[in-house]
Amino acid sequence: MKAKKLCFLLFAVFLLFSITSYAQTTKLKEIGRYTLVRIKGEVPVAEVMKTLVDKYTGDIKYGLDMAGYGDLFYPFIEQIKAASFEEKMLPIGDRLMWMLFRSQGKIKVAKDIEWAGKAPLAVFSFMVVKGYNHYEFVMPKPCGNIALRKVEEVIPDAICDIKVSPEKANINDPISVDMNGSKNAQSMEVEVFDKAGTKIASQKLTPEAAKWQTKFDKPGEYVFKGKAYNVKGKASTNPSEAKVYINSPPVSKLESSTKEDYVGLPVTFSASGSSDTDGEVRKVDFEITDSEGNVVDKHTATEKPFTWEKTFDKEGVYTVTAIVTDDFGAVSEPARVELKEKYKKLFFLVDAGPMFIFPGGSSSGAIGGRLGLYYEFVPHKWSLIVSGGGAFPFSSGWDAFFMANVLANYLSGKSYFGAGAGFSTSVRTGEGSTVEFVANAGYNVIDKVKMKGSIFLEGRISGSSKVMAGFRLLL
Question: Which sign does the torsion angle of CA 23, 29, 31, 35 carry?
Fold first, then answer.
């Protein structure tokens, strides 16, 4: 029984010693006896070492799998051909994580190696990068063994790139932000500041969704500042910003030559007072609507002074609108004026002309004239005349007399005719005043909105009949 316990104790001590020995660092005192590859010459150059990879690709893959680094095979093969080989001298005591070598024709791996030679070890050093890890491999001269010296996690700083388009836009135009050009970024952020430096918006982005669209409802300059963050959350330090200028819309100002006018007279609408603070006015769109909102007429002025002359042919209340467009396509708020158009109905009347008087069996010539008022109670159709004046006979025995008319006329184009009542005082001694039937007809030789002139013929029938031909002026 005691013998069995002793055997078990000796086996446990042996096993512990074996494990401890296995876990200890292997001290490498010489190099070149167990070479992974065959190298001609004592000290090959880096180009020769690179060519060995093609010859021993299978062995390298096998060795990396044995070392537990099989995932490095493809990066190793791809990068070593373009890698920069650096010649180094590993000091005594320098350690290697593992080394591939060949013993009895088989690939083997030695781990946790310390260089314990009598002098520093000459090696070729090169780097293989996979993800954020940088693997430093060394190949001792001249054996060509492959060893992993160290692994460092190198997380590159994020580099921010921001592009904003367009650089100039109008109010509420879409503004596109693109941060696709950022590098080594796990996330991005853009902040928007106005000209005063106040932050007015921000947006978080990712490499998968690196675009954003926004818009502005006020003019001015806006600054977009971007930041990119790497996988450790460290912000980029490179300057990354862009600017956008939002065009200030023009201001429309509209004036009319009159607020109330007569149908048929031209009215001038002027938008020459319109302005644009950061550009210039390029065109003005005028529009006229009636009291029910129906569009009556339109006009676009593209040259200074941006005016429009319009003649109305109907009575009514009209609204005139002017919208200004600047040199960047921005449009103003509409400016409006209201205009009342009416017919000129009331005129001051002056008429004069020769007259022939023939009461009973005698007659006399005379010259007469009147003043009065002319009123078109139905424009261009019916008018009313109230006038009064006097006449001066040419023959002796006749008296100057006063006469007055109240006439209604029908208008047909430039012609008119009508009738009414008249009154005359005595034309001769012994005759009294009389009420007369008056008829007249005429033709307009002057037909303007504010002035009319016609030749007319008038007949008056009573105790003393009269015929008058003359010229009637309406003002």
Answer: negative
